[in-house]
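Let's sit down with a protein and look at its sequence and fold side by side. We need material for that, and I hope you will provide a protein of your own picking. Once you have written the record down, we can walk along the chain together.

***
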Amino acid sequence: MTDGPRTELGTFLRRRRNEALRADYDLPPVGRTRTKGLRREEIAFLSGVSVTWYTWLEQGRDINPSRQVIDAIAVNLRLTEPEHDYALGLAGFTPPPRPVLAEPAPVPAHVQHLLDALDPAPAFALTPHWDIAAWNRAYEGLFPAVREAEATQRNLLQFIFTDPWVRSMLPDWERTSRQFLAEYRSEAGGRAGGPQHVRLVGHLRAESEEFSRAWDAHEVERFASRRREFQHPLVGELVFEQVNIVPQDAPDLHVVSYLPLPESDTRAAAGQLLES
């Protein structure tokens, strides 16, 4: 075996695998004390390749990994963007250009009209990458951060996993956050290799250990209307039914609305969101 890109790639992946913290993957220590390092079979399983093939890759043998496999290994080793690009380069691939964060495109006027007509029921419009592209006054009263955040940072998953205000309002935060993530994953399958998806997942991994654990659980769930409860610091308890609508003439958008349940006092309380 001669020194070269394949040898360097194998050495690099082996080092990163040995440096990984097992607790970050919800894996127990090896023996009584070894808390660092994944086994080859563990990273091979996560990445969808055989242990023998992955062993050959780390040994620098003359095999030809696909870009998809390198991407999968990079994601599961939780490589940073520069490390991911480095691994791709060693495997003979050109790293993709990183997308420039951009504001979501303005929603059609009739979608904003629908959102406004739903007041005082909080409602918002989601893009395919779950950026919040538009909302009504009640939703702004429920989540003030949607107004205050930069347009490039208005992402529903980011709010759920990193915003203390959002977390404090959700008495069932752990269940709700994992359910949202499972629903996002069910819709993201066709975009899993896309740069915006990779960037979002990588960013949230760096920002939230809880996101990393939930993402690694690989839960997938279709959207279903369901009961949502909030404990708002200004108007108190709110109980809604969450409903998702996809406009036929704007199929890339999801309009999500929180409709007050009739058996609760939410309708009156929700009206106060317009004043907050």
Notes: The first helix runs from residue 5 to 19.
